[in-house]
Amino acid sequence: SDSPTYSIACIPADGIGTEVIDAGVKVLKTLSEASNSFQLEFEDYDWSSATYLETGKYIPDGGLENLKKHNAILFGAVGDPKVPDHISLWGLRLAICQPFQQYANVRPTKVFRGTKSPLRNCNTGDLDWVIIRENSEGEYAGQGGRSHRGFPWETCTEVSIFTRHCVERLIRFAFETAQKRPKKHLTVVTKSNAMRNGMVMWDEVALELAKEFPDVKMDKMLVDAMTCRMVLQPNSIDTIVATNLHADILSDLAAALAGSIGIAPTSNLDPTRQHPSMFEPIHGSAFDIAGKGVANPVGTFWSAAEMMRWLGEEAAADRLLECMENVCGAGVLTRDLGGSAGTEEVTNAVCDEIRKSY
Ligand code: NAI
Ligand code: MG
Asked: How high does pLDDT run on average in the chain?
């Protein structure tokens, strides 16, 4: 047939990562078979903390070159009690995001049917936000040092890096994202009162770019005030752009406000499309529930839907979201959402819903 084929690299990695990626692949295969309009090929990469403990490397030599041949990457979660978190994060996730210039980290939220916000006045469809996080530099640029280890005069620096090039490309992407949404509203979040260099440049770049997007309404907030606004005036928010650290924190808050960390997705995008982009649930490897078959796979399904959207399969993406929401709405929910279903039950229910929908 002449329908397109997409090659997907799967990196389940650690803990519940393997469980939710299995579930995600199953749902994607069902979607591609039922739609009969595109094919998916999956290749598994066993890069994980187990391979690190065995070989000293998360990514084997030449590994990144191999990854480049895929159209997209579906990632689980990395983190293991036997490996310090900064080693696992830098060894695998950042080791892909940074060289692949996946500079835009996109995190949508929404209160789904069947899920409940802890905010008293929030209903289904509310908290329809997109948070755009700088994903290549800032506070997580890895600059700094540590001297006199263990002595009382031990000294550390953790230097934030803000370059006009990276700030501009990210805020431009945020304006473009806001422009495509009905409300056309972008909130630029900084901390430009206390941080008087890089953050002030952020504000300036945002103001300059605003001129190119006259149809987008822009406002700016300090990050501390933004946490209050997210809780107290959630309906005044649409698209948010912030630094690597700030948006990391704000997006966890957003996920919690929307009902559970188990449903939130993340896209690590290279908007230039020179490298494959990477899609993953927002949550970590959750060792406390790993191996029990109770992990919520919905965050991975939503991530898979965003992956299909990025690949140009808009209709399939929307259908997957719809099916996922139908299943949640019908009360087939994992424990984190107050239900009693396991990963497999939710996955099978979404697959059935997909088949029924065609
Ligand atoms: P976590 O997201 O793994 O877990 C936080 C809490 O949420 C736990 O109680 C967990 O059971 C629950 N939870 C998370 N995902 C869930 C799901 N799909 N269904 C049901 N419940 C879920 O965060 P935590 O505990 O801070 O980190 C654990 C490990 O994961 C650490 O090693 C950390 O570095 C790593 N991590 C990795 C990330 C990634 O690979 N992108 C992101 C966040 C953390
Ligand atoms: Mg985080």
From this structure: 96
Query: Which of 83, 285, 296, 337 is the best mutation target for the ligand 1 pocket, counting ligand atoms within 8 Å of the beta carbon and taking the most?
Result: 285
**Which overall architecture, per CATH, does domain 128-257 show?**
3-Layer(aba) Sandwich (3.40)
Quick one: which atom of ligand 1 is closest to the CA of 77? 40
Atom of ligand 1 nearest to the CA of 79: 32
Q: Does residue 1 surpass a pLDDT of 60?
A: no
Name the CATH topology of 1-102+267-358.
Isopropylmalate Dehydrogenase (3.40.718)
Q: Is the CB of 79 under 6 A from ligand 1?
A: yes
What does the pLDDT average to over 317-335?
Answer: 96
Probe target for ligand 1 pocket from 261, 263, 301, with the most ligand atoms within 8 Å of CB? 261
Per-residue pLDDT at 309 exceeds 80: yes
Task: State the angle between helix axes of 164-179 and 198-210 in degrees (0 to 180), rounded to the nearest 10.
Answer: 40
Q: Which of 100, 94, 25, 38 is nearest to 66 (CA)?
A: 100
Instruction: Say what the pTM is.
Output: 0.96
Q: Determine whether 233 is exposed, middle or buried from the number of CB atoms within 10 Å of its CB (0-12, 13-18, 19+).
A: exposed
Strand partners, 190: 222
Query: Per-domain residue ranges for the chain?
Result: 1-102+267-358, 128-257
Q: Helix or strand or coil: residue 241?
A: strand
CA 77 / ligand 1 centre spacing (Å): 8
Phi/psi at 233 (5° precision): -130, 55
